[in-house]
Design a protein that fits this description.
The structure is a single chain. By secondary structure, this protein is mostly helical. The chain has one domain. The chain contains 17 helices and no strands. Helix 7 packs antiparallel against helix 9, helix 8 packs antiparallel against helix 9 and helix 11 runs antiparallel to helix 16. The longest helix has about 35 residues. The radius of gyration is 22 Å and the shape is globular.
């Protein structure tokens, strides 16, 4: 009996030790992504400076990055779901005023410097944990579009007024779009497997006696289930983004943005949606475009469309959302971006 007791006490300690070691390994792998991507591309003997080299480097870096983020976030959310039922999570984050939760989620997005595809894993975790759909969209929009890196670079390029205005409008789009989508009550347009995950979350009253080992097991099970369902969508999406990243001509974009016609704003939004980059990556392009005489509102609309609405992102989201819900998401956010583009062109003409 003594030996058995020791074994029972030792098992959770070993599991915690395995988790800590895994997290250390995760951090080590994540810190070496840049070196890994360059090593992979070097083994392919692709001439440096070519479009193929840029596309291959992008793919070699972002694929393990997003998969690592996906695994970590889903594991953590799996543990969280062992504490809270979907209804309790909704009450915790939304309370009596869902609008306040949209503000909180959008504000959280500012301090998470994810590109759109990197924010999708956390979006999946939120949805599967029962967070209101509109709140998750507020985070999904804000995280790639507004962050401290983007604001710092904008401040250095065009001044604090524009950076502050971008912050305000970016948050406004994220909050308003998420609130509108939440008011439409489109949860039934989630994919069936996501709805099943939400229903299957344990009841908090029944989870009080759950052991540490069982909570860790819940995280591992979540990784097996969710990552196993979406990993190939992640790779397809990043591959599409890498091709666009390496082969879209910047000269064409600059010529369209510099004309100043009313249709330039919707035109660049249509051009920006299929592209894929994070805010820090697109801001140097913004600087170059402004230097060539492009209108500020048009350029910022392009930047917002690239970071908040991207074709690779929609490919990944397709595993979670129906096509109708994706269309609503794109339509609501694109409307907000168009409004910002036109308004900036008037204010900073």
């Amino acid at each position: 009996m003594v030996s058995l007791a020791r074994t029972d006490h030792a098992a959770p300690i070993r599991q915690v030790g395995v988790v800590v070691a895994s997290l250390v390994l995760w951090a080590l792998l994540y810190s070496q992504l840049d070196r890994f991507s360059h090593l992979v591309v070097a083994t392919l003997a692709i001439p440096p400076g070519t479009r193929l080299h840029d596309a291959a480097t992008f793919f070699a870096y972002d694929t393990p990055k997003v998969l690592l983020l996906l695994t970590l976030v889903v594991f953590v959310m799996g543990i969280v779901r062992s504490f809270f039922s979907p209804e309790r999570t909704r009450r915790l984050l939304a309370g009596r005023r869902e609008g306040a939760a949209n503000v909180l989620a959008a504000s959280l997005g500012i301090v998470t410097p994810f590109c759109s595809c990197s924010a999708v894993p956390l979006f999946i975790g939120f949805v599967s944990a029962g967070v209101p759909l509109g709140v998750t969209f507020s985070f999904l929009i804000s995280a790639p579009m507004v962050n401290e890196v983007a604001l710092g670079l904008l401040f250095g390029l065009v001044g604090w007024r524009v950076a502050l205005a971008y912050l305000g409008f970016g948050l406004g789009i994220a909050i308003a779009s998420g609130w509108i989508i939440g008011r439409l009550h489109l949860d039934h347009w989630l994919e069936p497997w996501v709805r099943e995950l939400r229903i299957a979350a344990p009841d908090p009253e029944l989870g009080r006696g759950v052991t540490v080992a069982e909570r860790i097991g819940a995280g591992v099970d979540a990784v097996r289930d969710i990552v196993g369902r979406v990993w190939y969508w992640v790779i397809i999406g990043i591959a599409a983004g890498a091709l666009i990243h390496g082969y879209v001509p910047a000269e064409l974009l600059a010529s369209i943005m510099g004309r100043g016609e009313w249709w330039s704003v919707p035109a660049v939004v249509l051009i920006g949606v299929p592209m894929y980059s994070n805010a820090a990556g697109i801001i140097p392009v913004v600087e170059a475009l402004l230097g060539k005489g492009a209108a500020l509102g048009t350029v910022l609309a392009f930047m917002m469309s690239v970071t908040a609405l991207s074709f690779p992102e929609t490919i990944i989201l397709r595993k979670v959302l129906s096509l109708r819900l994706i269309a609503v998401f794109i339509g609501v956010v694109a409307t907000g971006i168009l409004a910002v583009g036109f308004l900036f062109n008037v204010l900073f003409a």
